[in-house]
Amino acid sequence: MSYFCPNCKKEWKCPVKVCIFCGNSLIETTPQDSKIIASTKVFVPSTEQEKVPYYVYLIENTLGEKSIVKSQLRLELGDKLDLNRKSTQKIKIGIIGSGLMGLQISEYLILRGYPVIIKTRNEKNHERILSKLKQKISNDAGIDELPSRLKCLKITSQYSDLSGCSIFIDASSEDLLIKKEIFTELSQLADTHTILATNSSSLSIDEIASVTRFPTQVIGIHFFNPVKKMSLVEVIIGERTADKTIGIVMEFLKNIEKTPILVKNSPGFIVNRLLLPQINEAIRLLERGTATKEDIDTAVKLGLNHPMGPFQLADFIGLDICLSILEVLYLELKNDYYKPADLLYIMVNEGRLGYKTGKGFYEYQKK
Amino acid sequence: MYITGVGRTKFGVLSQSLQELAYEAMINALKDSSFSITEIDGIVVSNFLAGPLTGQLHLNSVIASLIPGIHIPIIRVEAACASSAVAINQAIHCSDQFSNIMVIGVEKMTGPTLISRTDAIAMAGDKEIDYKNGVIFPAAYALIAQQYMNKYGISHNTLENISLLNHKNARLNPLAHFNYKDVTKEMIRNSPMVAEPLNLFDCSPISDGASAIIVSKQKRSDRDISILSSQIATDSISLTQRKDLTSFIATKIAAKKAYSEAKLSPDDIDILEVHDCFTINELIALDDLKFCEPGGSYRLVDSGDIEINGNIPVNTDGGLKANGHPIGATGLAQIFEIVTQLRGEAKERQVKDPKIGLAHNIGGIGGTCGITILGV
Predict the structure, then answer these.
(1) Checking DSSP bridges between strand A80-81 and strand A93-96, what pairing results, if any?
(2) Which residues are B233's β-sheet partners?
(3) Which of B121, B123, B136, B148 to mutate to test the interface with A (most CBs of A within 10 A)?
(4) Are A202 and A174 in contact (CB under 8 A)?
């Protein structure tokens, strides 16, 4: 945005009302048709931009007005950049599900200025969701920011309210039947440009895609808990996922400062495929009395340089979730190596689910 | 007006506090002059970051603590990296009321800080439009470097040669930050990238240090140096409000006024100190100060003209690149060097018989420029 005096041909970048030379009112101009005239890739972090490297572009429009844009994307000198689209007209995102991940993804996107619509099953949940998000946003962005941030948020129980979203991210429970129902509904709202994504950590993209009218637009976007701290996002490519879909999703994730990696649809993708067998093996070591849980955690932390040991991490993830992922791995890969340890079943049946219930492999003070 | 005394500390990563550094420079300037502290009737302090980095402001009173019981007027001047030149300019403007004014530049940048140095230095640029969009200080000069290099077909090799020469000169300056360090072209070329196309050796270092000069109405000794001109000019702070990013209009205006006030032209200048906070700035400075046509400064580098025995020696002390850049003290260190050279006291790095010297001190990304011309 610039403020221009047509009389004196002077330009201001800060929002002033009158020309200090002639006293005339100024005209607000919005740079359009801007192209990149200078760029740099920056390797030094600062408070405003902790993640490096990143790009800074100096852009200029046909009137010679300049602006500065930062981005995770590599663009070339002379490339056109629509400043309005980048900064204000952010695409609308529909989040299906208001559990832990649904709310975390919603908050993350709201804080980056994306309009978010959360679809929840029951109208009774609206107030609970709103108050949780208010709490999170005021903790992370400050209470002053709350009113302007909440403008980005809408909560609904009607699928019809989700129309107009460019990307749907399903964050419902890990149940293929439920997901198939959801994607059948979303498919009715979608057009040929809509991205139909699921945050599922274990279910098959291809199965989910089979119920939609647009299987080439179905993709996995697997965020990690806690969303605001974990930079990694697994992007899961199904058999029919189109390159265009992958491209849009990769750009979107880079724009929201995540580090996406690509993985073909397969049980557990990359992270869970490597992590859960390790947790399972650690539980087996404990069952056999080979070592104490504390010593196994210490060994993994100091010997493998992991920030948490397998028992600490399993408690944090939730033992019920660990079990359900292992069951999927076992079922799909048909190998005893992935068979969940007996102790895991016992603990889940006893309701010792980890951090969230106050008791898992370790005990936690209830918040 | 005359400079009747100069003093400085070593620049570098130093153990002394801001007060200790300022004190050492003051003592050295007084020793160099024929004055005692009681003959100083006003002080201007130049400093950029004591507030944000160390949490200490009200620096004029901090300096008063170093001269107990004197109670003379002291003012503090801040104009980012051009604080020194603006402080000198301020001292000259105050001269009606004072006989001998001391100008002290001091900066303590290493050690524990309240905020990161990158964030603090970025305060010299526009906060809302530039910094919030990722334009830290090196990124601003990187954007400028890319424009300049593309416009005039300059390769990074020229910037490497500027860095190399400044490091070579610093080897001859015992007070320089990198006096101890032998630097090769390979080290420069292979150093880590900071903001493309600028790598580590394109950037001046984070230094501690202080410099002080005494500005007097009357000449007392043959060693006193005349101030022929001091001019400052300003420009908008955000890069987005500039028409041309391959030149700094503030430099051109301040230089034009200074040449006119001193009744001199670039041909008359025997020795030059330019503000090479980034190597690219040395090229832009030589253009803007009219030592060549726009874009022609690389020839002065290639030809060796800017070396100590060249036609127009530049940054004989090692420049900001290798002498160091304790921001508030930097411009006064340039004056220290020119005075030392004009007096013929620069020993190993002495330029042959210079009569006129010019110092070019830039604040931010060309938002302020101060030009000082001195003569014997």
Answers:
(1) unpaired
(2) B369
(3) B136
(4) yes
Compute the distance between CA of residue B31 and CA of residue B20 in angstroms, rounded to an integer. 16
Radius of gyration of chain A (CA): 24
| Tokens of residue B237, six digits | 């702070």
Q: Residue A31's pLDDT is what?
A: 65
Side-chain-side CA neighbours of A292 within 13 Å: the count stands at 4
Closest by CA position to A65, among listed B265, B241, B214, B22: B241
| Known catalytic membership, residue B325 | yes
The Cα–Cα gap between A237 and A205 comes to 8
Check residue B6 and report its DSSP letter. E
Between chains, do B136 and A42 touch, taking CB under 8 Å as contact?
yes
C-alpha A115/C-alpha A132 separation (Å) is 18
Q: Return the DSSP state at B192.
A: P
B119 chain-A contacts, CB cut-off 8 A: 46-48
User: To the nearest whole angstrom, how far is the Cα of A14 from the nearest Cα of chain B?
Assistant: 9
Strand partners, B227: B374
pLDDT given at position A353: 95
Q: Which of B116, B131, B135 to mutate to test the interface with A (most CBs of A within 10 A)?
A: B135
The verdict on whether A234 is a catalytic residue reads yes
The catalytic residue among A67, A201, A265, A280 is A201
- Confidence class of residue B202 from pLDDT cuts 50, 70 and 90? very high
Nearest-Cα residue of chain A relative to residue B132 = A48
Q: Backbone phi, then psi, for A91, in 5-degree steps?
A: -65, 150
Which chain A residue has its CA at the smallest distance from B192's CA? A43
Helix (H) or strand (E) holding A68: strand A66-71
Do residues B315 and B282 touch, judged by C-beta distance below 8 A?
yes
Q: What is the DSSP letter of A203?
A: S
Per-residue pLDDT of chain A (367 residues; tens, 9 = 90+): 788 888 898 888 888 889 999 999 988 877 677 889 999 999 999 888 888 899 999 998 877 888 898 887 788 898 887 654 444 457 899 999 999 899 999 999 998 889 999 999 988 889 999 999 999 888 888 887 788 888 889 999 999 999 889 999 999 988 899 999 999 999 999 998 899 999 998 788 999 999 999 999 999 999 998 898 899 999 999 999 999 999 999 989 988 889 999 999 999 999 999 999 999 999 999 999 999 999 999 999 999 999 999 999 999 999 999 998 999 899 989 999 999 999 999 999 999 999 989 999 999 986 5
- Of A228, A236, A233, A197, which is closest to residue A97 (Cα–Cα)? A197
- The whole-angstrom separation of Cα A16 and Cα A18 is 6
Nearest 5°: phi and psi at B370? -120, 130
B143 vs A14: CB contact, 8 Å cut-off?
no
- CB crowding B184-222: b at 16 or more within 10 Å, else e: eeebbeebebbbbbbbbbbbbbbbbbbbbbbbbeeeeee
Distance CA B254, CA A332 (A): 75
More confident residue, B57 or A163: B57
Counting every residue written for chain B, the total comes to 376
CB atoms within 10 A of CB B357: 28
Task: Compare all CA atoms of chain A with the CA of B240 and give the residue at the minimum distance.
Answer: A66
| Phi, psi of A323, rounded to the nearest 5 degrees | -65, -45
Q: Distance, in angstroms, between B50 CA and closest chain A CA?
A: 19
Instruction: Return residues 52-71 of B near A (CB < 8 Å).
Output: none
Interface of A with B (CB under 8 A): 11-14, 37-49, 54, 56, 58, 64-70, 77
